[in-house]
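To whoever is on call:

I kicked off a structure prediction for a single chain this morning and the downstream step that reads the tokens threw a length-mismatch warning. I double-checked the sequence; it's 95 residues and nothing unusual in it as far as I can see. Pasting both halves so you can look.
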Amino acid sequence: MNTRSLVRLACLALPLAFASAAHADVKSAKACGAKLPAESQVIFNKTLPQIAPGADVKGVLTNTTRSLAMAGTINRGTAKASAQAAYKCLTLAAQ
């Protein structure tokens, strides 16, 4: 192989390496989320699709939790504690 072929191969393989690393983090986050209490799972499941590597997890989580509480989907009195539990799992997906 010449140098040009090696560079092309590296350019094609690099995105695949990052995609599988990101996929592994989401997999870990989902495994963590499955162990959460019911209300935390609701928050986790609603928030996870919005989380990408490097995302502002706290900001997204706060907005999602507020929306769920205002809609009556989760209890307003326990929303903060439930969100804090979900946060630990969501940070895995943002790495």
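Update from on-call: the warning came from a stale cache, not from the record. Cleared it. Sanity check on the structure: Residues 3-33 form the longest helix (31 residues).
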